[in-house]
Every structure is written in C-alpha cells, then in structure tokens.
Amino acid sequence: MELEKALYKADYLLKQKRYAEAHKEVNTYLASDPESIPALIILIQIYLGLDKNEKADEVADQLIKLDPSDANILYLKGLTQTQTGKRKSALKFLDSALAFDPMMAEAHGLKAAIYFLDAEFEKALEAADNGLRIDPQNEICLNHRSMALLRLDRKEDHVQADQQALKSNPMNPLTHASVGFGALQKGEYDKAKDHFREALRIDPTNEYARQGMLESIRATNLYYRLFLKYAFWMQGLTPQVRWAVIILGYVMIRGLDSVSNALGTFAPIAQAVVIVYTTFAISTWIIGPVSNIFLRFHAFGKYVLTEEEIDVANRCAALLLMAVLGAVLFYSFDVDPDVQWKNLGFYVLCSGIALTVVVSSIATRTLEKSKRRLKTLGTIFGIGCGVLILMAFVLPNLAWDIFNLLLYSFIGYQFYANSQE
C-alpha cells in the first residue's frame, strides 16, 4: 500500500512540475519493483522535465525491452529520440507506435513537430491534419498546423488556424506562444508581445514563451528586426539548402576579396561588400547573447533572462571589451619600431571577436551533447588565442603563423558548430 502511495504521489508531483520530489518518490517505488512499466513511464517524464534527455532515452530503451509492442512506449521512445536530436530515428518509432495504434493523435502531432523542425512544412501540415482528424482539439497538431501554414505562405489559412487554436483552448500557453511567434514572423511585434505575455502569465516557466518574449523585446531594435527576417528566412529552408547558402556566401566573399584589387574603380565597392557581408555574418553569430547585454538594463527584459544567459552576456561583454582594447592598441601604433605592438593589438582584437563568437555558439546550442563538444573545442581555441597573444611578445614572427592556423581553425569551428543543434 505504501509503495502504491509513493507511485501516486510521484505522478501528482510530476503534474505539479516538482520534478526533484517526484524523482525521489518514483525511485522509492522502483527500488522494490525495478521493471514497473507505470513507474518507468513516470521516470521518463521526470527526466524530460529536468532536461536529462539522454537518461530519459535510456529508460525508454528499458521499457521497449519490457514491452516492444506497446504504442505508448514506442511514442515515448520517439519523444526521447526527438529531444536528443535523433529525429530520423524518432520518426521510425512514431510510425511503429501508429502501426499499433493508428488513433494516437499525439504521435501525429510529434511527427508534425519533427517535420516542422526539418523545414518539411508540407509533411508537417499533413501530419497535423492527420492528428486533427482523430482529435480536433489536439493542441500540438493545432499549433504546428498554424506554424506550417505560415511557413507555406498560406496567410488566410494561417489566421483561421490561429483563431481555431485560441478558441480550442484560450488558456494554453503553448498556443499563445505559437501565435506570438507567428505574429513576430509577420512583423506584428506588439501583438507578439501580448501573446507571449499572456503565455507567461498562464505558465511563468514556459521556455518557448520566454524565448519569444526575449525576441520581441530585442525586435525593438531595427537592426535586430532585419536579423529576425533573415533568421526566419533561413529557418524556412531545408538543412541542405541552408548549408548551400552558407558555403556559397563564403566562397563568393572569398573570391570577391581575392580579386577586389584587380577591379580598378570598382575595387572600393567590392571591398565594401566584403566588409558589410563579413560584419553581418559575424553579427548573426553573436547577436543573441550580445543583445542580452543590453537586455540586462531593460525594465522588463532583465527579469526574463536566466542566470545562464546573464553569465554568457557578461562573458561576451568582457570579450568585446577585450576586442575594443585591441582595436585601440592597433590604431595607436603606426610606426615601424612599434610594429609588434600594432600586431599585438590586431591579435587581441581578432581574439576578442572570435571568442565572443565561440561563447555565443555554445550558448545557443539546444542539446547538451552539442554543448559539451563545442565547449571542448572552444576551450582548445581559447588556449590557442592565449598562446597567440603570448607569442606576439616572445616570438612575433611565429605569431603570424599561429594566427593563420587559428583563422582556419575558427572557420572550421563555425562550420562544425552550424552542424550541431
């Protein structure tokens, strides 16, 4: 009886989002019955709530061994695979779940979410419609149907889908957040703020709404609005096309830079294009965390930032200050005897900007394994920058070789970081 009470209490605490307490109760039950399917299902949900997605995935494997034909277990495995970034594998498990239970609207909804993340909007719309035929009030299907319609530029259908989603459940924070992102994409910033604010009023812990609120506050800046339009455009492309755009842009700028001197009167224009593109490219890598520096002083924004975001903003501020000091040093020395000081300023300037990009790229990854990989590479790169600055004092001729090595390492790091989620 006591054990049954522990399981009931764990489920109650889970619904209250008191994950640590729920974890303690479910462990009490599992200590006496380690193969209890209901307890393991609760444990998966607890791990997902605690952002321990890899542990949740391991428990899902354990459940599948106990009952490989249970549609709910296969759905949970699809969910944990999605959360760990293995979306193709997740789709296979969801299809298996639907083979056993074709009426599982949640599985169709999760398929719609996966297809949406992969920019396969027609498939996302089809999956959402399949789920809504089973359950017309399913919120995941309603929200992803609305978002897919927006990306497919079916604006009238999108407006109707938003109204339907809000009518279905006006107290659902995910629905308000989804409508808010739709308004954000259409440039309706005040409307977006209203919906994000309502979502956070209903559920102050809703991460999707919190991120949306941050974006809408940042969008008060004209330059950030241009960046948002670019970001939404890139998100509307398939991953393969995104890579093609990135690589093509890099190749074109490198080519334009190499021939700019041979363009005669058009050389200044070519150089200006290279500078503008490079500045824009770098700013897209750091604009999120760097904008948080200013949000720290915003009347409302400072309350929306997490401790981690504040920490990253502080690091970026320090690194950008380092870059500014390097720029001052670089432009303060312009005579041959002091060329090593001029070079030192250049190295400090480049290191400050590059490390800001590295810190920003780590902060914007959503998967823990991606963050771990990038932190390791970022630490190595940071040590390399330190060695470069030291060599500028000790062996200035060798420093230039180290700089070139770090430059190519930085380019490689960015391509690798863009492949991580």
Automatic annotation (TrEMBL):
User: Is Oxidoreductase one of the keywords UniProt gives this record?
Assistant: no
Gene3D superfamilies given in the database record: Tetratricopeptide repeat domain (1.25.40.10)
Instruction: Write the record's keywords in alphabetical order, separated by commas.
Output: Membrane, Repeat, TPR repeat, Transmembrane, Transmembrane helix
Q: Does the keyword Transmembrane helix apply?
A: yes
One Pfam family in the UniProt entry: TPR_19
- Superkingdom field: Bacteria
Q: Where are the TPR repeats?
A: 71-104, 105-138, 173-206
Q: Where are the transmembrane segments?
A: 230-253, 273-295, 316-333, 345-364, 376-396
InterPro entries linked to this entry: TPR-like_helical_dom_sf, TPR_2, TPR_rpt, Ycf3/AcsC/BcsC/TPR_MFPF
* Listed PANTHER family: CELLULOSE SYNTHASE OPERON PROTEIN C, TPR REPEAT-CONTAINING PROTEIN MJ0263
* Name recorded for this polypeptide: Tetratricopeptide repeat protein
To which species is this protein native? Chryseosolibacter indicus
